[in-house]
Amino acid sequence: MNEHRPDGSDHDPAGDQPSTGREPDSIFKVENRPAPIFNAPPVVVWLAAAFLAVHVIFQVAGERFANWLLLVLAFIPLRLVEGGSALPGGEIARVTQFVSYGFVHGDWMHLAMNSFWMLAFGSVAARRLGATRFLLFSALAAAVAASFSLVINWGQEMVLVGASGAIAGQMAIAVRLIFAHGGSLRTIMQRDVNQAPPEPLLKLFTNRSAVIFLAIWLGLDILTASSGVLTEGRIAWEAHLGGFLTGLLAFPLFDRWGKLRNQDWY
């Protein structure tokens, strides 16, 4: 997720059988077949395609139209202060910007990185939640991410674009499933996380594999934010944080399977 200046297959858990009281490892292998991390559900593929389509429109459109479209779709804190409705998009964009900014990316590298992370970890979340809940959750994570950025940049003439906030939320869900009960990135190829009990939130931060993964992800985030590597704009770390916290805390609200199983969420 970058900031720029304006001038420049659903799983239906309802049919699952009651819990058998099996140990977590046996629940992970309930389908007895691998679920490759890049076997992306259709909703993830279509969402990535939407990102690509919007970016192509920006590339082929004339400069005037591209600038207008950017100001309509991007999240702009200035839009929410007095007189902000004069920006392209008007009053409607004051609301829609909390989600629409996620479809805009600063450059091809920004688009490629976000698409990669979503195909990898968003796929885990999508298989677990199903298409509708996945989209609703992603919209919520994007909105919370933008709100975090809004608090820090209230009234400023900055432009926030990119799906990173929503993807950070998707990654938080994936982390709670992938690393649960001794899991790792290696074992995801052998485990079925669609019906697996998630790692309790308080236990997650004592899970060595999860902590190492999160440290690496956070380190890369800080590196790119401070050095400008891979992007020309500032990395909106506060938006990433907002999206990630949304994934950690709001997962139970969207995970119908977990509710049916009365999972130990926290």
Structural write-up:
- This protein has a single domain, classed as Up-down Bundle (Rhomboid-like fold).
- The chain is built from 11 helices and 3 strands, in the order E-H-H-H-H-H-H-E-H-H-H-E-H-H.
- The chain has helices at residues 24-28, 42-60, 63-73, 90-100, 108-129, 131-152, 164-178, 201-204, 208-227, 237-254, 256-260, and strands spanning 2-4, 159-161, 234-235.
- Strands 2-1-3 form a 3-stranded antiparallel beta sheet.
- Helix 2 packs antiparallel against helix 5 and helix 7 crosses helix 10 (237-254).
- The radius of gyration is 19 Å and the shape is globular.
* Overall domain count: 1
Any idea what the shape is?
globular
Structural class: mainly alpha
Spatially, the strands of the biggest sheet line up as: 2-1-3
CATH architecture grouping: Up-down Bundle
CATH homology group: Rhomboid-like
Question: How helix-rich are the residues, as a percent range?
Answer: 55-70%
Main beta-sheet annotation:
3 strands, antiparallel
CATH fold type: Rhomboid-like fold
The radius of gyration computed from the alpha-carbon positions, rounded to a whole number of angstroms, is 19 Å
Highest CATH level, the class: Mainly Alpha
- Helix and strand sequence: EHHHHHHEHHHEHH
Compose a concise summary of this entry.
It is built from 11 helices and 3 strands, in the order E-H-H-H-H-H-H-E-H-H-H-E-H-H. With 266 residues, it is mainly α.
